[in-house]
Amino acid sequence: MPMDGLMLAFVAKELAGELIGARVDKIMQPGRDSIVIALRNNAKNYRLNISANASYARLHLSEEKSENPAEPPMMCMLLRKHLLGARLKNLYQYDFDRIIHIVFEGMNELGDIVDKKIIVEIMGKHSNIILLNENDRIIDSIFHVNHEMSRVRLVQ
How would you classify the pairing of strands 138-141 and 128-132? Predict the structure, then answer.
């Protein structure tokens, strides 16, 4: 079943009901285009799988444990730096787009409480996972889109 805007609305609503208030325990990147976030909420553990695979882009909870590389990729280390210990504050879809916003509340380097976001774009070959700072500026993404790839939509 394709992950269209309507299907994604139901997924977002169900995930929000389970995960809002959960604390980030662990972040893994088992593949080049996927992230797994281990969360804990109400004495229960969750594994949020986020994939930006061109053929199988998706967002779902899973019980399955995946193999991780011996040395974590740069994106994984960056996510760990910004999100470990943070709480999932909100998870929503905007206007039936195939984009999910995951908002985390955590501390920055100075000890101030700030919001960080993960934007999950589920758009076939244009799928991406983007980390934003408290000012909604891009920190990094799974796939970088330059001028040669797209003149309209840059992600650097």
Answer: antiparallel
CA distance 115 to 88: 10
CA angle 62, 69, 65 (to 5 degrees): 20
Are 8 and 122 in contact, with CB atoms under 8 Å apart? Answer: yes
Both tokens of 148, joined, read 């040669």
Comparing CA positions, the residue from 78, 85, 90, 87 lying closest to residue 35 is 78
31: Cα separation from own chain's centroid: 14
Range 8-36 burial, b when 16+ CB lie within 10 A, else e: bbebbeebbebbeebebeebbbbbebbbb
Cβ(129)–Cβ(52) under 8 Å?
Answer: yes
The tens place of each residue's pLDDT in the chain, 156 residues long, gives 567 788 889 999 999 999 999 999 999 999 888 999 999 998 999 999 999 888 888 899 998 887 888 888 899 999 999 999 999 999 999 888 889 999 999 998 888 999 999 999 888 888 889 999 999 998 888 877 654 554 445 454
